[in-house]
Write a structure and sequence with these properties.
Elements (H helix, E strand, L loop, with lengths): L5 H18 L8 H20 L4 H8 L3 H10 L4
Length: 80
């Protein structure tokens, strides 16, 4: 399995947000930034935890965040 390039991730996000805004059909979006961050952050953490076989220290290093921050995010998103 090859790694996903950063521009591919950005492209997917760009397409999804554009599609979301079009689907609103003139309705005003609310909290777009928070919605996108939450949509990306949870699966990112889940993949890191899975990749490190549950090792939170390694997952935090992989993500480039502090282990305590990782634990807070796991609690926030109810990730076990």
């Amino acid at each position: 399995m090859s790694a996903i390039k950063e521009n591919e991730i950005a492209s997917c996000i760009r397409k999804a947000i554009s599609s979301y805004l079009i689907d609103l059909d003139g309705e005003k979006p609310g909290q777009l930034y928070g919605m996108v961050i939450n949509s990306v952050e949870k699966p990112l953490i889940e993949v890191a935890i899975q990749h490190t076989k549950g090792n939170q220290t390694q997952a935090a290093e992989l993500l480039g965040i502090n282990r305590n921050t990782l634990r807070q995010k796991m609690k926030q998103y109810q990730i076990k």
